[in-house]
Design a protein that fits this description.
The protein is an alpha+beta fold. The chain has helices at about 1-20, 25-45, 50-60, 160-175, 180-190, 195-215, and strands at about 65, 70-75, 80-85, 95-100, 105-115, 115-120, 130-140, 140-150. The strands form 2 sheets. Strands 1-6-5-4 form a 4-stranded mixed beta sheet, with no helix packed on it. Helix 1 packs antiparallel against helix 2. It is flat and about 70 Å long.
């Protein structure tokens, strides 16, 4: 994470140097757009921790670290709520459950729960959140992460990546020709399927071609 931030800062410095030298308006507009984009990315990157704090945290972590993949979520007008189930988490000291928020991400760290540490990271949230208004709550066997929306509007999913994935799938199947939509679906199943799925689709394709051929009337 720190390395990524350093690279972004270097890119920003280079863009600033080019802005001083450039004279053409079109090139200047392009560079200003890139500068704004880099500044936003840097703003959304979590600040690096001091070295001594990192070393202290490492020494305090017991056992091994488990990445959390399962969660549930819902939303209200003001909050996005992410529910993470962890047995016995309510027994931990409050400082062992940490969440760091940025405008478009959050990191959860649960330390020393039954000899393990648990982490979850969400990057590229669908919309900006309020860092100051976001928080976490510890309930029985559950951590509730509450992301305060900057604007009170409905989120269709949690991250930008999920949104783009859904849009691609919709584009693949949303065609005026039903047979084309079916063909796109079969292609996707074939590409993502195992060997058995590929054999099944191949057999169905061959059989359909034979039926089509036999059904033709001789001229």
């Amino acid at each position: 994470m720190a390395a990524a931030r350093e690279e972004l800062l270097k890119d920003l410095e280079e863009v600033k140097e080019l802005l001083v030298k450039v004279t053409r308006k079109r090139l200047r507009d392009v560079l200003l757009t890139e500068k704004h984009k880099l500044e936003l990315e840097i703003k959304n990157q979590p600040l690096p921790k001091p070295k001594d704090a990192v070393e202290e945290e490492k020494s305090s972590l017991g056992g091994y670290t488990v990445k959390i993949n399962n969660y549930g979520w819902d939303q209200s007008d003001k909050f996005i709520k992410i529910y993470i189930s962890l047995n016995g988490v309510q027994k931990l000291p409050a400082e062992n459950v940490q969440v760091n928020f940025t405008e478009r991400s959050f990191d959860l760290l649960v330390k020393n729960l039954n000899g393990k540490n648990y982490t979850m990271t969400f990057n590229n949230l669908l919309k900006p959140i309020s860092v100051e208004g976001s928080s976490r709550k510890i309930k029985t066997d559950t951590v509730l992460v509450m992301c305060r929306k900057k604007r009170e509007e409905k989120w269709e999913c949690l991250t930008q990546v999920e949104k783009e994935s859904k849009e691609k799938e919709k584009a693949a199947y949303d065609t005026s020709d039903p047979s084309e939509g079916l063909m796109n679906l079969l292609k996707k199943m074939y590409a993502e399927g195992d060997d058995e799925m590929k054999r099944t689709i191949n057999k169905a394709w061959v059989a359909s071609r034979r039926t089509e051929s036999y059904g033709r009337k001789p001229w």
